[in-house]
From TrEMBL:
Spans through the membrane: 20-41, 50-71, 83-103, 110-131, 164-190, 226-248, 260-282, 289-309, 315-334, 355-372, 378-400
Protein name per UniProt: MFS family permease
PANTHER family, A to Z: INTEGRAL MEMBRANE EFFLUX PROTEIN-RELATED, MAJOR FACILITATOR SUPERFAMILY ASSOCIATED DOMAIN-CONTAINING PROTEIN
The keyword Membrane is annotated on this UniProt entry: yes
Compartments where located: Cell membrane
GO CC terms: plasma membrane
């Protein structure tokens, strides 16, 4: 692909802003949990493999994303987003009660992480399939860039420090605040005009046949296929280290619990920058060059962290470079999918892609926990970085031959 947009556009329809606001408050709650769940796990065990298991449980629902894609293509996507947020609010409310009573245990965190992750899979699939309906395909880079930047600000930059601070103040408090954020998101989604189910032709078919249709489309179309496989392999490598980051921060960097939340927030700065500038950068350089640049930068940044990051400042500086590249990659990959996939297949193909992409994360977390237990907390960064270099070398020839297919 040589160009995905001739000019960045920021004039988005009013209905999009309700979706944007719902994402803002919902991801703020998600961001608090990013810090709170690992911190609570660390308070219950020091075993890196058990702590990595919480990350595995939270990302495991992506392995079920194919089923979620069928649901998204069958039913009203606005209604699905609403129910996903209601489920998250109820699950977190139950956990808040349990912790308030002083009954929290490690296995409960596994269940909480899995339930939150499962609802997030449905919400994300429905939301991403809903964006082209709200903004049209000519505004996808602008809309996706704004959503990704917002997610970085609320989920990665503001949420973790806030969650860690509330956790230090009173352990149940961030869970109760989460209930409020998910509830507010439901109210904002309700303000979006209903558009009904996706238009589909022909008689309803079985779930396996519909899943197969989405998978076949992904396999036969080279651009989405290359982006999906590359991102999945990259996520495996990256999650090896991220799954035990809470221990790396305390044992290697010497940070406190509240410092861990601030670290997560500082690490999100690059993602915010990349999301805000993504539409212009893609318009200037084209999707192909952006994708190649991101795949080159990411493994080098990961290796540099493993080799030299022994204080928070160095880690944040190197991770900022990494997260800018990841943010740009995400905008390119998401916009390509939304532009090329027919609307009636958008939920299934997007979910198939995200299953392969994010389904690699629990596997990476398991591998990272094992590597950290056997070889220390620095090893997952080095091993993940070396594997990521290999992924880049294998993917670059395909990306170089990436012609315009839009």
């Amino acid at each position: 692909m040589t160009q995905t947009a001739t000019r960045p556009s920021t004039r988005l329809p009013g209905a999009f802003h309700n979706l944007w606001a719902a994402n803002l408050v919902s991801t703020l709650g998600d961001g608090m949990l990013l810090a709170v769940i690992p911190l609570m796990a660390k308070s219950l065990t020091a075993d890196p493999q058990l702590i990595a298991g919480v990350a595995t449980a939270g990302s495991a629902p992506w392995l079920l994303a194919l089923l979620g894609g069928v649901v998204v293509d069958r039913y009203d996507r606005r209604l699905l987003m609403t129910w996903a947020q209601i489920i998250q609010a109820l699950v977190v409310a139950v956990m808040a009660v349990v912790i308030t009573l002083g009954l929290g245990q490690l296995w409960m965190l596994y269940l909480l992480a899995f339930a939150i992750g499962a609802a997030e899979v449905l919400f994300t699939a429905a939301s991403q399939a809903f964006v082209p309906t709200l903004v049209g395909r000519e505004h996808l880079e602008a809309a996706n860039g704004r959503l990704i930047a917002t997610q970085q600000v609320s989920k990665q930059f503001l949420g973790p420090p806030l969650g860690a601070a509330l956790f230090a103040f009173a352990m149940p408090f961030p869970f109760w605040v989460n209930v409020a954020t998910f509830t507010l998101s439901v109210l904002l989604i309700s303000r979006i005009r209903r558009v009904g189910r996706p238009v589909r032709g022909g008689a309803p078919r079985s779930i396996p046949s519909e899943i197969g249709e989405g998978l076949r489309w992904l396999v036969r179309n080279r651009l989405p296929r290359v982006l999906t496989l590359s991102a999945g392999a990259g996520n495996f490598c990256e999650y090896m280290a991220l799954s035990v980051l809470v221990l790396f921060a305390s044992d290697v960097l010497g940070m406190s619990d509240s410092g861990f939340g601030l670290l997560l927030g500082a690490m999100a700065v690059g993602g915010v920058i990349g999301g805000l500038l993504s539409a212009r950068i893609v318009a200037w350089f084209g999707g192909r060059l952006v994708a190649i640049g991101a795949m080159t930068v990411c493994p080098l940044a990961w290796l540099a962290i493993g080799l030299w990051a022994r204080n928070p400042v160095t880690l944040v500086a190197l991770f900022t470079v990494f997260s800018i590249a990841i943010s740009l990659w995400s905008v390119v990959a998401l916009s390509v999918r939304q532009r090329l996939i027919p609307d009636e297949l958008l939920g299934r193909v997007t979910s198939a892609s995200r299953m392969l992409t994010f389904g690699a994360m629990p596997l990476g977390a398991l591998a990272g926990g094992f590597v950290a237990r056997q070889f220390g907390l620095i090893a997952p960064w080095i091993v993940g970085g070396l594997l990521s270099v290999a992924v880049t070398v294998l993917a670059l020839p395909a990306l170089v031959r990436w012609d315009e297919e839009e």
